[in-house]
Amino acid sequence: LDKRVDVVVIGAGAAGMMAAIRAGQRGRSVAVLDHAKAPGEKIRISGGGRCNFTNVNAGPKNYLSSNPHFAKSALARFTPADFIAMVERHRIGWHEKTLGQLFCDDSAKDIIRMLLEEMRAAGAKLHMQTDIRAVEKTLDGFRVETSEGAIACQSLIVATGGKSIPKMGATGFAYRLAEQFGLALLETRPALVPLTLEPGLLEELAPLSGMAVDALVRHGKTEFREALLFTHRGLSGPAILQISSYWREGDAITLSLQPELDFLDLLKTARRDNGRQAVQTVLGQYLPKRLAQYWTERHGLEKPLADLSDKVLAGITDALRNWQIKPAGSEGYRTAEVTLGGVDTQALDSKTMQVKTVPGLYFIGEAVDVTGWLGGYNFQWAWASGHAAGLAA
Ligand code: FAD
After folding, report:
1. Which of 3, 64, 109, 323 is least enclosed, having the fewest CB within 10 Å?
2. 260-289: per-residue pLDDT in tens?
3. CA count, 13 A, side-chain hemisphere, 93
4. Quick one: 164 exposed, middle or buried, by C-beta within 10 A (0-12, 13-18, 19+)?
5. Whole-prediction pTM
6. Exposure class string for 176-196: b at 16+ Cβ within 10 A, else e
7. Is residue 167 over pLDDT 90?
8. Å from CA of 164 to ligand 1 middle
9. Residue 76 contacts by C-beta under 8 Å, 6 or more apart in sequence?
């Protein structure tokens, strides 16, 4: 470890590596410290191993924060197009999957390799398996005590991420450091996480386990239209992960199955064409069969269509459009993709991520109270906030 550098970055994840690249490109001497064995471990496992590295639609509206304006400046200064340009310079193949989500053709490891090459080219040095013991403010910067010795720096960038997936080295380090410097923290909670159900409801829905259906999932005014998955623990799939960031204990969520279908019209037409059919048979043409069966049994709809009034058909339709479920909880940090809350953005300059009251100290990435939707938005925030801090540190 060098005794002194211009910039120390703690955390060799998405945000930290990007910040190190930018600071190094400006001619600053940079040391990146991380306690893990390998850099970018979350990048490696992201997007099912293909890394959903950005979203072409990324904008402030795709982020949760107690200050929704905070992310604007950084996101505008480093856009998805800027990241794509870097990916193309490194000849990494990519494709758009759905809803603007961009993935690597081959492997998420290509993104890690790209960032490491850029760091090397920028002269930023990486020190893995380095435990941080203490950080203190000095007259002209900071002194960081590590398991490999002490290092002094002018600027300190904290990029240690959130609490999600503790098994992979996530710690509350950034929060503790923020507290040490007197910054406010916003309550953290697991987000982009599967939701669990009460044992009784779980048992009732057990026959649906493993089944996916297209759904519009609502919580208050927020809604997401994506796949919904019934699991042996509760509810998952992209639509549920999205809504989990908004859901709170005690709240219900509303499911609307196959939202583009006009079930009332379909049921009336089926009744006219063949009144002897069962509701289950008709619904089974548009919903997974097991779901159609569960649904008709639950609502006691065994009679043939001809015996059901318009009002009953409207009731079936309404129930399919407004299926209220009260989740019991979430699977927690063990499986959460991100952490909501964190370092209060009030404390930071939105252009540089610098702590207003502590010149030279920066917080970036997931540690900050900016949390993206599912779909490449979280990495885009990591790149953008890393870029902002790297240009300033
Ligand atoms: P991290 O990437 O978590 O990096 C933090 C670094 O700090 C780590 O290297 C860690 O070892 C180090 N560190 C932590 N504590 C300490 C300490 N005390 N001392 C020293 N070092 C420390 N987002 C997307 O946009 N697209 C996806 O496809 C996607 N897929 C995901 C899949 C999974 C399974 C998970 C868990 C998350 C996924 N995310 C995805 C979210 C994304 O990974 C994070 O938002 C992003 O990695 C945050 O970047 P970061 O640099 O702030 O933190």
Report:
1. 3
2. 999 999 999 999 999 999 999 999 999 999
3. 3
4. buried
5. 0.97
6. ebbeebebebbebbbbbbbbb
7. no
8. 8
9. none
